[in-house]
Write a structure and sequence with these properties.
single chain; about 290 residues; alpha/beta; FAD/NAD(P)-binding domain; 2 domains; 6-stranded mixed β-sheet; 5-stranded parallel β-sheet; 7 helices; about 25% strand; globular
Length: about 290
């Protein structure tokens, strides 16, 4: 049975947290997806002088204040990675591995995806390219799969896929030691192009070519256009109006994902607006 919420917030940066605070005050049932580390970009800021009320603080100090505020208001972060979101008309289904969450409205506060798409990625999406290895692995029983991972959690996915596929290539885009099952071939190289005819046939690297039936790209976060089918995007940003409404009814967006300037105070303000708009939408739609 799906867990049901009024609002699901995707992203735990200033926009997502701000939205959560305002939704909590208005007594709506919500879930906040993200990382307890909040924002890596926030951590790296040496000084923040343009966030009202906080002068000459480091990003680390501001992050600590965010944590304290959330703790006082009993706001928890669900540390699960959303693989895809589907608009079902009256609700949204959020896919996480082998389960789903259900929400009447969603707020996208995903920030900016800094990983560039690989050539051929969009062309073969759904035709050999995927973003959830554990979801789609059964489609590749007895076949060859390549997993390009930008984080260590990809090792768990590769170990799972190894139980189903005949051959698994693991291409880590990070440094470190790898805890992988015997038989998984680690390829230290940079992928440049995904190729095929109607479906994926090969993955071209800088120094070699891998013949493969499927390619899974496991990033820290998906770009909004990959996450929500049908979402209108312009110059890699979500199109949203001043109420933070997108082209999909019940879907709101805030923060860096809707465009510059990329500043914490701007993101927090938009998170506030998105929360108020989502609450109004619920009150008007579900009377």
């Amino acid at each position: 049975m799906n867990e049901k919420y009024d609002i699901a917030i995707i992203g735990s940066g200033p926009a997502g947290i701000s939205a959560a605070l305002n939704i909590k005050i208005r007594n709506k049932k919500f879930i906040l997806f993200g990382s307890s580390n909040l924002s890596s970009k926030l951590e790296r800021a040496p000084k923040v002088n343009n966030y009202l009320g906080f002068y000459n603080v480091s990003g680390e100090e501001l992050k600590k204040r965010f944590h304290e505020h959330m703790k006082q208001m009993d706001i928890q972060i669900t540390e699960e990675r959303i693989d895809s979101i589907y608009s079902m008309g009256e609700c949204f289904l959020l896919a996480v591995n082998d389960k789903y969450y259900e929400a009447k409205t969603i707020i996208l506060a995903t920030g900016i995806d800094f990983n560039k798409e690989i050539e051929g990625e969009e062309e073969f999406l759904g035709h050999g390219v995927g973003y959830c290895a554990t979801c789609d692995a059964p489609l590749y029983k007895g076949r060859t799969v390549s997993i390009i991972s930008y984080h260590k959690d990809g090792e768990k996915d590769a170990n799972y896929v190894q139980e189903i596929a005949e051959k698994v290539y693991y291409i880590p885009m990070y440094k470190g030691k790898y805890k992988l099952k015997e038989g998984i071939e680690v390829v230290i190289d940079r992928p440049t192009k995904i190729e095929g005819t109607e479906v994926v046939k090969k993955l071209t690297m800088q120094n070699r070519v891998i013949f493969t039936d499927g390619v899974f790209l496991l990033r820290e976060s998906l770009s909004p256009k990959q996450l929500v089918p049908g979402l209108e995007i312009e110059n890699n940003h979500i199109i949203a109006n001043r109420k933070m409404e997108t082209n999909i009814p019940g879907c709101f967006a805030a923060g860096d994902c809707i465009g510059a300037p990329y500043q914490y105070i701007k993101a927090a303000g938009e998170g506030n607006i998105a929360a108020l708009s989502a609450v109004s939408y619920l009150d008007e739609t579900y009377i």
